[in-house]
Amino acid sequence: NNKADEKLVQIDYRPGESYWLKPNGDRLTVIFSIKFDDKDDAVFGRVFINEFSKSAAGCPSCDVVTRKNAPPPSELKTVEGLAEDNCYISFLLEKRHLNNPQKTLEVLMSCRNYINFHIKCSKAFLHIRMRNKVSHLQLVLNRAKPEREVEKKTASGRTFKK
């Protein structure tokens, strides 16, 4: 590896978020910084990215994906002003990934949208489940209401007593 291979390229693509490209011989490391404005989205995002990296680890032909919450990955040690509360996700691209650069670029550039989509779908799914559970519990509560005692009267109009 020569010194040119070690150059880190930073691209700012959203306020508070960047991605970095670090060539390393015939490989390329792509690191995304993801900032979640909503604290619920941050929880869902971290869980999703964690599961994403675990599932990729179980597949030998899949990309190498790593996730860091804090501190930022070691490849970014020379970068100043990194946000500690951002989530970082790294992809290690090999020569086979770079055979079709247009497709690789499309997949990488849609990574943030892909994560956002799954966060929103997860939240919608949980909201549907919670609404269904509340409806079910309301039915149970309505069935548990005691019947009101109604005054029973005889045919002549007198009150019936037990």
From TrEMBL:
Its main location: cytoplasm. Belongs to the ARPC2 family. Functions as actin-binding component of the Arp2/3 complex which is involved in regulation of actin polymerization and together with an activating nucleation-promoting factor (NPF) mediates the formation of branched actin networks. This is Arp2/3 complex 34 kDa subunit. It comes from Entamoeba histolytica KU27. Signal peptide: none annotated. It is found in: Cytoplasm, Cytoskeleton. Pfam families: P34-Arc. One of its GO terms (cellular component) is Arp2/3 protein complex. Transmembrane segments: none annotated. Component of the Arp2/3 complex. GO terms for biological process: actin filament polymerization; Arp2/3 complex-mediated actin nucleation. Keywords: Actin-binding, Cytoplasm, Cytoskeleton. GO terms for molecular function: actin filament binding; structural constituent of cytoskeleton.
